Amino acid sequence: MAEKSIDIKGLTKKYGEHIAVDNLNLTIEKGEIFGLLGPNGAGKSTTILMILGLTEVDSGSVKVCGIDSSRYPLEVKRKVGYLPEDVGFYNDYTGLQNLMYVARLNDIPEEEAKKAALEILQEVGLEDVKDNKVSSYSRGMRQRLGLADVLIKNPEVIILDEPTLGLDPEGVKKFLQLIVRLSRKKGITVLFSSHHLHQIQQVCDRVGIFVKGKMLAEGKISSLAQQLFSKNAFTLEGGIATLTEDVEPPLPLKEMVQKMKAIPEVAHVELVDNGFVVESHRDVSAYLSRLIVKSGYGLNFLSKREYGLDDIYYQYFQEDKNR
Ligand code: ADP
Ligand code: MG
């Protein structure tokens, strides 16, 4: 069985009457890149703080690399590199000095720290600016320095809370690619949170859609829409034609509709002008096209609308819908 890096069971956190995280179950395997996706206020940061043992849990448990976060937060801290939403640096220090400062805080011997720092600065693409003051760094450079801070501890798990905030699209892409490269190279488990559905999905092995403290769906992006819109994951529209030169009359439309409805996992069938709309739980286009032709009609077109990320976005992520 794969090794679990993060194992969350029945995790719940309340702020007064408000339930910020509601009975969350989640397992993240070693080396996996997981995206925790949810709109603002979903409870992502609260979840992360509980994973790190930085905030009290009301009920449930969190284990990181097998260690209970609420009981042994210091041990967990040794295993996990955490990049919070707002990273603070000493602006009058250079990038290298900032990184060396973090290394000292983590009791890394000076010589070893220097070597590691230079190597990591190169890895995150800050080699050329390592001796410039951090006050001159762009947002993207600061994020990469934050990642360097995280990496110098040589963590088994990296947790990044909204790491792409304030980056331009190109910066987002580069930053995410950097994380993926490092994770794959070093076998590091990565958890990131974001309210940007479209950015994060490009790089994650799995994502979870987290809304109002609850995990609504979890898995590969391609399976999410089916989980969330399971009643009618597919909408198929087709155009049919009666071919006048045919000798045999086609099956009456009503009867064909009955046959369409009888196809397993078809939820709804509607006739429209010169065609039909079918909603189904799975892709039944092959069955539909065969049925139409067998019933004596011609198929003008068959188009498939699959529910996807945009639908998830409109349903759950538009800010005003969740307020
Ligand atoms: P996210 O990171 O997904 O935006 P948070 O975890 O920050 O969400 O917040 C989840 C909910 O808990 C929000 O409704 C927020 O207002 C509330 N919350 C977060 N932190 C506190 C706190 N320290 N005290 C009271 N309420 C809080
Ligand atoms: Mg947050």
From TrEMBL:
Gene3D superfamilies: P-loop containing nucleotide triphosphate hydrolases (3.40.50.300). Pfam families: ABC_tran. GO terms for molecular function: ATP binding; ATP hydrolysis activity. Keywords: ATP-binding, Nucleotide-binding, Transport. The keyword Oxidoreductase does not apply. It comes from the Bacteria. Residues 6-237 form the ABC transporter domain. CDD domains: ABC_DR_subfamily_A (cd03230). The keyword Manganese does not apply. Belongs to the ABC transporter superfamily. This is ABC-2 type transport system ATP-binding protein. It comes from Arenibacter troitsensis.
